[in-house]
Design brief:
Chain lengths: 579, 275
């Protein structure tokens, strides 16, 4: 068997250009046109540090089945110009089959490109645009690429009308003419791969959504009615989606002065009986940790979405990295059992957030959700997510006849909560250790009882099968988490198609770790590969500390900004397979 | 408890014995607060008292209301979240000068600015008592202590001026020993729409025994409360720091975001994602 398994599903396209060239707009329309034509796909962006403008790359993958990550190579590179192309070169891998389209006015073809492929096509895009009053290069590029991969022209025209109608007849007409010109020249790119539709997909209802939008929607589906917000890249879109949406459904979002405030605002609102959420990234999570401990001790459910970015410190705000696992699990002082979950795909941002709201509310604990920049900002065509029956359903006391004990020692550790306003339920929630009534106490018995109660709540809970997504069988097992699940699952699927048995365990519930369930799934494993995107192999070490792993367990990991790709994981599977 | 009978101050007091030193001004604040709640004819379950960390921040547990004793400096965000989510509750945030003006200083500015309809009571004794006598933001510059030998040499923070400049809608000074006056001020503050701030001078007899003399320094303000912030600022900045009463009453509209009405369902929100 060959070491190289060709990933032949779908078409990967990179559009690059300098600031203002409009590659993101063109890419977005390409994705939407594919969506409307019955295809699946995703778009991510790679941008420079500039606040606005600067070079940009729109990275797309289109396919006739659901795809969740770039495969690790590109079939088409369309360079409007070569401005700072070197910044993207590592992300845009080309091979001898790649087709490159460029405008000679945009500079010389970089050596890294000409060395990779001979399929380099010169088209005077700028000249084409200048021949159309108000013409724009990105719309011509859109026409060329859409035509080259066989997307129906009427569909793209429809999008142009929708997008530009409000900007006046002149703009609309110019865009339309550019698109026509692009389609006319698409024939010059004859050797481009074509999108071949699968009739089965035509009637499947689909959504176009980012992971941040999906997480926000999952929150409101789960019953969230209050959010506090402090802007931070790459989490802000969650908050910006929630702001009007919460108001529309009768809730509220407050912009806070800092993350110390936002976490406490949601604790205050949740203490008032209203399911509450905030979203942040690593620096904000670091500021919140003291108060997440308060929510643990006072048993107030809250949900915190950490859309991870490169760290430590300010790190790389616009790039993805799975390096907040340690702080999410270990960041709280004292013995502070809480929940840590991670969505396993863009679509799963919805499920995992909704589930986390349910879990937090059911157990009266804080839940930290580890999403990341990739999941959060990737725009994806997904099947319409199913409705799931996970809602905020907190155990509350409705009527109090006798003395109320807020922190009563129950069998499952969950004590019914009196919501402010309930007569006779008055108590003081406290970060100080307390007795069953909530009265501050430094007595050993109270401390031990309350610690055990808070631990019991989350350890004894029935999480069902949602703690992980498990696929395949085999004595080679890959354990992964979060966004890395997407390339792992795709690589494993490709390996299976080649007759290699591999089992994948993508862990959604990171804390409390389901040790027994995981060990049961690992029974019979000869070799284990733990895959994640960070420098310290945080998940691998976490598993080492808790799980009885086979001797032959190794970590495959690297930090951001590069994502782990399907291709590189497949190559690791091949290495393991040969051993 | 007979529900039809009017509630007395003692109906708002819990059975828990305060941790405070004998003679602490905070006992009087506790008494004034319970009297004010009785005067306001609130039910204990309709009131939430939210605090941070420090001697005075222990106050929620000494009441029969709902309470939250949070972490150091974050009482205002806790109270803000509760009030926005539950506008039906009467929210009173309480604490000390270190909690409110040092570690919580940023929240103080923005709570004044945000003008949420709640009342913030700071029991100001110009010292960190719980950690046994360190200077706070309101401590005099020459007050000698182990942590700042010879004094901090720093100008004291002026909470009333800062509250005014930041947009608080009701600004008052009280003295804990003046129970009648403090009760009335708390009651007025709760009734006034928007963010109401009361600085209650509350002596620490243990670490600042010289504050026992405050009772003879206290006097009523020479003029009525004003609704002109410039005038109020001038008065506050030029007075001797011991006049008690309402210093400023504004008419800024309290903070409000949504109307609490469900205009759309979650299914409506999902429409935007459909292809």
């Amino acid at each position: 068997m060959s070491d190289q398994i060709k990933i032949d599903t779908g078409i990967s396209i990179a559009l690059t250009g300098s600031g203002g060239a409009g590659v993101m707009t063109a890419g977005g329309m390409l994705l939407e046109a594919a969506a409307k034509s019955g295809f699946y796909g995703l778009q991510t962006r790679s941008v420079g540090p500039q606040i606005r403008g600067g070079e940009a790359a729109a990275l797309l993958r289109l396919s006739n089945h659901a795809v969740e990550i770039h495969r690790g190579g590109f079939d088409i590179l369309f360079a409007l110009d070569w401005s700072n192309f070197s910044r993207f070169a590592a992300e845009i891998t080309l091979d001898e089959n790649s087709v490159v389209i460029f405008d000679p006015e945009g500079g010389e073809v970089p050596e890294i490109v000409s060395a990779a492929t001979k399929n380099i096509i010169e088209l005077p895009i700028k000249k084409f645009a200048s021949e159309i009053p108000g013409g724009r290069m990105n719309m011509i590029a859109l026409g060329i690429v859409a035509g080259a991969i066989d997307l129906p022209k009427e569909t793209v025209l429809g999008l142009i009308v929708r997008k530009f109608a409000s900007k006046g007849e002149a703009v609309l007409e110019a865009s339309r003419a550019c698109l026509e010109a692009g389609y006319k020249h698409a024939g010059s790119v004859a050797n481009a791969p074509k999108l071949v539709s699968d009739a089965e997909n035509a009637d499947v209802p689909r959504w176009l959504i980012t992971g941040n939008e999906a997480a926000a929607l999952g929150a409101v589906r789960g019953g969230i009615k209050f959010a506090a917000a402090y802007p931070i890249t790459p989490a802000t879109e969650i908050l910006e989606w929630l702001a009007p949406s919460l108001t529309a459904i009768g809730g509220n979002l407050v912009q806070a002065e800092d993350e110390l405030s936002s976490i406490n605002m949601i604790i205050g609102a949740s203490y008032g009986g209203i399911p509450s959420i905030t979203a942040t990234s690593g620096p904000g999570l670091a500021l919140m940790t003291e108060s997440i401990g308060l929510a643990t001790a006072a048993e107030v459910p809250v949900v915190i979405v950490d859309v991870m970015r490169g760290g430590p410190s300010t790190g790389i705000p616009t790039k993805s990295e799975q390096s907040d696992l340690n702080i999410a699990i270990y960041g709280l002082h004292g013995d502070a059992p809480h929940l840590v979950t991670a969505p396993l795909s863009v679509a799963d941002c919805l499920f995992t957030t909704q589930w986390s709201v349910h879990l937090a509310e059911a157990m009266q604990v804080p839940a930290i959700i580890l999403s990341d920049q990739y999941l959060g900002q990737a725009k994806m065509i997904i099947d319409k997510p199913a409705d799931v029956a996970f809602f905020a359903d907190r155990s509350k006391v409705e009527k109090i006849d006798t003395a109320y004990t807020r922190y009563a020692l129950t069998a499952d550790g969950v004590s019914p909560m009196a919501i402010p306003g309930t007569a006779g339920g008055q108590y003081t929630a406290d970060g100080l250790e307390h007795s069953v009534t909530g009265t501050p106490s430094s007595a050993a018995e109270d401390h031990h009882d309350q610690l055990a109660k808070r631990r019991r709540k989350i350890e004894g809970f029935n999480y069902g099968t949602h703690w992980a997504e498990i696929e395949g069988e085999g004595d080679l097992v890959i354990v992964t988490w979060g966004s890395t699940a997407a390339p792992v699952r795709e690589a494993a699927e490709l390996a299976r198609a080649e007759g290699i048995s591999v089992k994948t365990i993508a862990v959604r519930l990171l804390a409390p770790l389901r040790v027994e369930a995981l060990e049961a799934e690992l029974a019979g494993a000869r070799r284990v590969l733990v895959i994640e995107q960070n420098d310290l192999a945080q998940f691998y070490r976490y598993l080492r500390g808790h799980v009885d792993l086979p001797a032959d367990t190794r970590a495959y990991h690297h930090p951001g900004p590069m994502m782990l790709s399907t291709t590189e994981i497949l190559s690791e599977i091949m290495k393991e397979h040969r051993l | 408890m007979n529900v039809s009978a009017p509630l007395k101050a003692s109906d708002f007091k819990s059975d828990l014995k305060p941790v405070w030193c004998p003679g602490c001004g905070d006992y009087h604040v506790l008494l004034s607060l319970t009297k004010a709640l009785a005067d306001l004819e609130r039910k204990p379950e309709e009131v939430a008292v939210i605090s941070g960390i420090g001697c005075s921040s222990r106050i929620p547990a000494y009441l029969k209301c709902y309470g939250f004793h949070g972490v150091h400096g974050r009482s205002l965000p806790l109270g803000t979240g509760l009030k926005v989510a539950r506008p039906d509750m009467t929210v009173i945030v309480a604490g000390g000068d270190g909690d409110g003006f040092s570690i919580g200083g940023n929240h103080f500015l923005h709570a004044c600015r945000r003008n949420i309809d709640l009342t913030y009571i700071v029991m100001d004794n110009r010292v960190y008592g719980m950690t046994k006598g360190q200077p706070s933001p309101t401590t005099e510059p020459d007050w000698d202590s182990a942590l700042s030998p010879g004094g901090t040499g720093l100008n004291p923070f002026h909470p009333l001026v800062i509250a005014l400049a930041s947009g608080a809608n009701f600004v008052a000074r009280a003295f804990s020993g003046d129970i009648r006056g403090t009760t009335k001020l708390i009651s007025d503050a709760v009734n006034h729409p928007g963010f109401s701030f009361i600085q209650i001078l509350s002596p620490c007899v243990t670490f600042r025994p010289e504050q026992k003399e405050w009772k003879s320094a206290i006097h009523a303000p020479p003029v009525e409360a004003t609704d002109d912030p410039a005038r109020a600022a001038r008065r506050i900045m030029t007075d001797d720091g011991f006049n008690v009463g309402v210093l400023y009453r504004g008419d800024r509209r309290p903070y409000k975001i949504g109307d609490g009405v469900e205009h759309k369902t979650v299914a409506d929100l999902e429409q935007e994602f459909q292809i």
